[in-house]
Amino acid sequence: MKTIALLKILINIFFGFFLLLLAYNIWEGLIFMIQSPEEMSNFWMLEAYGQTESSVRLVQLHLLFETIPYIPFALGILFARNIVAAFVRKEFFSVTVTRNFRNAGILFLVASVLMIVQHMIGMAILGRPTVNLIIGHHFSYAFLIIIGLLFIFFGHVFSRARELEQENELTI
């Protein structure tokens, strides 16, 4: 139980820091959206794309929409927190745990697909690959897909374990 308690502390810390980063990214995107092209002339991303008003607006839109994939990721972490909280309460095979595993897995898969789409749109709009500033580069896509599939798999495993536990209780 010490491991589960430690996992709960670590996932809460990670979730808190992630929400702070997400809020900062959204705030930064909104700040850049209201700035004029002249005010953004010294912004580091514009050095590679030119100083035209249309390139400034494209960079502003890219910065704002860059945070969209992190919303399902944050929700997936929230479901993972709920899983750990159920484990602390010793509810290992409850319906809530299996549902949370499945939901977290689906959200991690959605986040990875949105990151790939966001990356491709960034390449099309800006003309060069974009850098995912919170999680990393292309490795994060594969990592999130694997994590999402593992969570879905664990959801099925815990669902089957719950069924076996119910059958076992009936035979006693």
From TrEMBL:
InterPro entries tied to this protein: DUF2975
> Which organism does this record belong to?
Sungkyunkwania multivorans
* The protein's name in its UniProt record: DUF2975 domain-containing protein
Q: Where are the transmembrane segments?
A: 9-27, 68-88, 100-126, 138-158
Q: Which domain of life is it from?
A: Bacteria
Decide whether keyword Transmembrane is in the record: yes
What are the protein's UniProt keywords? Membrane, Transmembrane, Transmembrane helix
Lineage, uppermost ranks: Bacteria, Pseudomonadati, Bacteroidota, Flavobacteriia, Flavobacteriales
Q: Which Pfam families match?
A: DUF2975 (PF11188)
